Structures are given as structure tokens and as C-alpha cells.
Amino acid sequence: MGAKLLLEDGSIFYGTPIGTKENIEAEVVVTTSMTGFQETLTDPSYCNQIVTFTYPLVGNCGINRQDFESSTSHVSAIITKELCVSPSHFEKKIDFDEYLKSCKITGLTGVDTRKLANLIRTKGTMKGKVICDDEKPVSTPTNDLVKTVTTVKPYVVPGGKDRIVALDFGVKKSLLESLSNLEATVIVLPAFSSFEEIMSYEPDGILLSNGPGDPKDISEVIPTIKKLLEEQIPLLGICLGHQLLGLSLGFESVKMKYGHRGGNHPVKDLDTKKVWITSQNHGYTLKASEVLDNIRITHVNLNDDTIEGFVHKSLPVLSVQFHPEAGPGPQDSKDILFNFSKLIKKSKVGDYHG
Ligand SMILES: NC(=O)CC[C@H](N)C(=O)O
């Protein structure tokens, strides 16, 4: 038989193999983004997931030099309805399929992705196997997701006089660039750096970055985050970083039925009452089983009321579940990064009073 996706519930979706045409088992997720395939493919938060694109045509701009979110792709496989075989764009360097092969990514095209998305939304995220060749073994990727994607050595993104230390749980390049555009020199450190290592860079602000997997799988970083909170240095949590910050402050994290992945998630800013359209990519969310006295929820998702952001009432802490750097996606929420930069500047002159 032809290439196929076999789902945990027994469903089968047939398609045509693309990329390296290997066999792989991983969690199947769905993104509804209509643009930014290169950014999605290279976002480390998708590490070890089979990413289904609901937009019917993928790869029509090819792959360019500047839209990478990291140096390679960590997805397990991709599923599309149609993969463009003759991409055209003035910045294109290589075709999508060529890029998949160069990163050793497998996939299927010609799949009824609308039916697949409906199934995942009805039954929830599940595991699946992409089988391109019945004769070959099925590989199961590692569970050490953050260890796979984090930087091995510290590096610096130059920018300006504010010093931000970014703990790299799988950070997106556009997030680092957005911060450096706000007068910050960003020092990117491996995810499991110690409190002492972090403090040795004398940070004016700390970023807990986005990244793949279940936040509870890397709970060893929570004691470090708690110590950082005691230092009262401005802290920004984004997506996985938001979840880790939440766990450090008394929230719980829970797996969502099928997550939020796409470029049009409506989030309400509870202070201004404005609704932002946001870029999102997560499968876990924070919950509070009791009232957390020190926390003020600042943002909620209008589709399902989940928590999208909070601040600490007395510490300089901002945290959001969505992606204000918007790579790809709408830029409605860029102010979050601007507010973090303002918080750093205020705290540098001793002007932060909670
Ligand atoms: N983009 C992210 O940081 C994702 C966070 C986490 N891995 C989740 O799926 O919920």
C-alpha cells in the first residue's frame, strides 16, 4: 500500500511521501497558520511533533535565508494537503522539499488535512506513525526535547545597553531579535544553567524562552527560577517559559485537548479590554486550583477562557502564553516586549515599586 499516517485510534490517512521518506512515530498536532511555513518548520517548540498544516498549499515561497527561527528543523514530520513543487519568490533559495531532505525530515502530502484536523479536534491530540516505506523500521524520537534544542554554549545577540540573559529552552530567533531591537544585548545561556552562572552575567532582565514539551518534564529548572525571583530582577516568561514561571509561582500545568497552534488566536487584554489576535503554538496551559494572592491575570483566550498572561503584584514579572514576537503572525501584542524593556529601564534606576 502507499504511504500513510496511522493514528493511535486506528484511523488511517493515505498520502504521497515527501522529504526523506522515512518512518517515524510522534505526537500529531495541527497548525492553522496561513503563512510562515519556514518559521513553523524551524520553531524549536515543534520538536518531535508531526505537524499538520491546514492551509491547503504549503511551500509556495520556498525557503529563504532570513526567516529561520533556528539553525535547523526539529519537527518529526510534516503533513500537507498539497506541497508546492514550483515555488516562486524573489528571496527563495531552495524548495521546501529540498529543505526537508537537508534536515532529514519526512512527511506526507496529498492528505485530507481538513478531515485530520477535525478528527484531532474531536478526539484530542494523539500519537501517530508516518509510514513511507513498510520495509523500514519506525524511529521514535528522544524524549529529552529541551536538551535537544537548547544551545550548548552561551552566545550573545548584540543590541544595546540593557543586558538580558535568555534561558534557551528552544528560543526563537525572532524573539531574540525583537529584544535586541529594544536596546538590549541578549546573552543566551543553555537551559540548565545554574543560578550562579546566570547571575555571573549581571543581568538587568531575564527571559525564560519558549520551547518544546511538557513543562513538568524539566521541573529541575524551577528551583533556579525561584532563586531568580528572589533577586527581583525583571523576568519575562514566553510560552514554555511562561509555564515554568507559573509552576514556580503556584500554578499547575495541564495538557490541553488539542492545544492552540496558529496565527489567529483572540486574546483579551483585561486591563485595556482590547482584543489582540495572536500567534500561538502550545499544547499545555496554566491553571490555578486556588486563588494566588500575588498574581494578577492580565490576559485570557476568548475561544476557551484559558490563562494567556499574568503579572506578579509585587515583583517585576511579566508572563504570556502567546508569542508577542509574532514569527510568523500578527503583531498586535508586540507591546509585551516593549513593556518588559520599560520594566528593565525602570528597575535599573530603582524605580520599580510593584
Ligand atoms: N511554544 C512553546 O513554548 C510551547 C510550550 C509547550 N511546549 C507547550 O506545548 O505547551
TrEMBL record:
It comes from the Bacteria. It is an enzyme of class 6 (ligase). One of its GO terms (biological process) is glutamine metabolic process. Residues 1-131 form the Carbamoyl-phosphate synthase small subunit N-terminal domain. PROSITE patterns: GATASE_TYPE_1 (PS51273). SMART domains: CPSase_sm_chain (SM01097). Pfam families: CPSase_sm_chain (PF00988), GATase (PF00117). Residues 1-161 are annotated as: CPSase. SUPFAM superfamilies: Carbamoyl phosphate synthetase, small subunit N-terminal domain, Class I glutamine amidotransferase-like. Gene3D superfamilies: 3.40.50.880, Carbamoyl-phosphate synthase small subunit, N-terminal domain (3.50.30.20). Pathway: Pyrimidine metabolism; UMP biosynthesis via de novo pathway; (S)-dihydroorotate from bicarbonate: step 1/3; Amino-acid biosynthesis; L-arginine biosynthesis; carbamoyl phosphate from bicarbonate: step 1/1. One of its GO terms (molecular function) is ATP binding. Its EC number is 6.3.5.5. Belongs to the CarA family. Small subunit of the glutamine-dependent carbamoyl phosphate synthetase (CPSase). CPSase catalyzes the formation of carbamoyl phosphate from the ammonia moiety of glutamine, carbonate, and phosphate donated by ATP, constituting the first step of 2 biosynthetic pathways, one leading to arginine and/or urea and the other to pyrimidine nucleotides. The small subunit (glutamine amidotransferase) binds and cleaves glutamine to supply the large subunit with the substrate ammonia. Composed of two chains; the small (or glutamine) chain promotes the hydrolysis of glutamine to ammonia, which is used by the large (or ammonia) chain to synthesize carbamoyl phosphate. Tetramer of heterodimers (alpha,beta)4. This is Carbamoyl phosphate synthase small chain. The lineage of its organism: Bacteria, Bacillati, Bacillota, Clostridia, Natranaerobiales.
